[in-house]
Request: fold
Amino acid sequence: MKLGKKQELFARQVPRLIDKAHELGFEVRLGDTFRDPRTHGEYGVKKGYGHYRSCHKLKTAIDLLLFKKGKYLTKTKDYEKLGFWWERQHIDNRWGGRFNDGNHFSMTHWGSM
Reply:
């Protein structure tokens, strides 16, 4: 699948991800989505924070900040139920909890993270 189509598919899935988070009783704030190459380097180049092959650089990743009763949840375990659900939605979906980045939800492309 071409990158543009993958980006469109990812964008269609993100609202469902947020809806699922609400269904599970979380409040949601948005974190990183696109990481600008001027700050983070082109795909495959390490610059700034994050992985050099980050899906954020491809516009196929989002970091969600989950809250319960006004408290920001920072532990990977807090995101587990949502992460496992996300991975079941598409063969290319990945949850960052697999690599200790619990608030990261992505769709792989070109071996991206």
Notes: The first strand starts at residue 27 and ends at 30.
